[in-house]
Write a structure and sequence with these properties.
By secondary structure, the protein is of the alpha/beta class. Helices cover 37% and strands 24% of the residues. The chain folds into two domains: 165 residues, P-loop containing nucleotide triphosphate hydrolases (Rossmann fold, 3-Layer(aba) Sandwich), CATH 3.40.50.300; 64 residues, no CATH class. Helix 6 crosses helix 8. The two termini are 32 Å apart.
């Protein structure tokens, strides 16, 4: 895959039809540039996760062109998918064991990644000893440990309570501002997408395609003042209206 016009990821006319005959994506076009925080927003089953897996190279497109710049990719799944028999540190070390990343300094990188997500004191703990939010932090640390150029996140906070979700949203933005890696974040929450993103791509129901692109030009860092502001409410209303129109445009 090659870089296209400065985009770190570019999809043009991408379609995905599963062996069952289900058409998940049709005519999907998107481009994401270096350092952006972009959310894919849409209802459950609209193909958001499928698009993310195609970007990651975990699934092949049935049609269209997929271009991705060279560099490591970190992937955070909906479930933390931690190895229950391994410590938090060993779980975070896994990309070095399985991948081609330079292994020199791997343990230092694990320590750094755990500190970034607030788990420095839990390196020797096991997943069963952690809360749901802490397990997700460990999963994020594992995705960040090689400091990938592209971070893909598939509804990572969907199963968490609202308070934990808000806290992890803030922590994620802190990490993104520190590292300035490209993030593509899948969510079905209008409120989460507005809070996190520089740009939101609203998708139609299956077969998924981009219906609207909405910029969120609010300044970073974002905090509770933004979350309770009229500006935030206005963006949420704009995105909600676009999502409603996307749903109505479904075939």
């Amino acid at each position: 895959m090659t870089e296209n016009a400065g985009a770190i990821v570019s999809l043009r006319g991408v379609g995905k039809t599963f062996e069952s005959g289900t058409v998940a994506l049709a005519g999907l076009d998107l481009a994401v540039t270096e350092g952006e925080f972009v959310s894919l927003l849409g209802p459950s089953g609209c193909g958001k996760s499928t698009a993310l897996r195609i970007i990651a190279g975990l699934s092949e497109a049935s049609a269209g062109v997929v271009e991705r710049a060279a560099g490591d990719i970190g992937f955070v799944f909906q479930d933390p998918t931690l190895m229950p028999w391994a410590s938090v540190a060993d779980n975070v070390l896994l990309p070095f064991k399985l991948g081609t990343a330079e292994k020199t300094g791997a343990h230092t990188a694990v320590t750094r990644a755990l500190a970034r997500v607030g788990l420095a004191e839990f390196a020797d703990a096991f997943p069963r000893e952690l809360s749901g939010g802490m397990r997700m932090r460990a999963s994020i640390a594992r995705a960040l440990v090689t400091e990938p150029r592209l971070l893909l996140m598939d509804e990572p906070f969907a199963s968490l309570d609202e308070i934990t979700r808000f806290k992890l949203n803030n922590d994620l933005l802190g990490v993104w501002q520190e590292l300035r890696r490209t993030v593509i974040f899948v969510t079905h929450s209008v409120f989460e997408s507005v809070y996190l993103s520089q740009r939101i791509l609203v998708m139609t129901p299956r077969p998924g395609r981009i219906f609207a692109e909405i910029a969120i030009p609010a300044a970073y860092p974002r905090d509770e003042r933004f979350r309770t502001s009229a500006e935030y409410a206005g963006f949420c209303r704009q995105v909600s209206e676009a999502l409603g129109k996307a749903m109505a445009a479904a075939p």
